[in-house]
Amino acid sequence: MALDKSDVDKIAHLARINIEEQDTQAYLQNITSILGLFDQMQEVDTTDVEPLAHPMDAIQRLRADDITEKNQRELLQSVAPAIEDGLFLVPKVID
Question: Could you tell me which residues come within 8 angstroms of residue 88 by beta carbon, excluding any fewer than 6 positions away?
Answer without folding.
Answer: 77, 80, 82
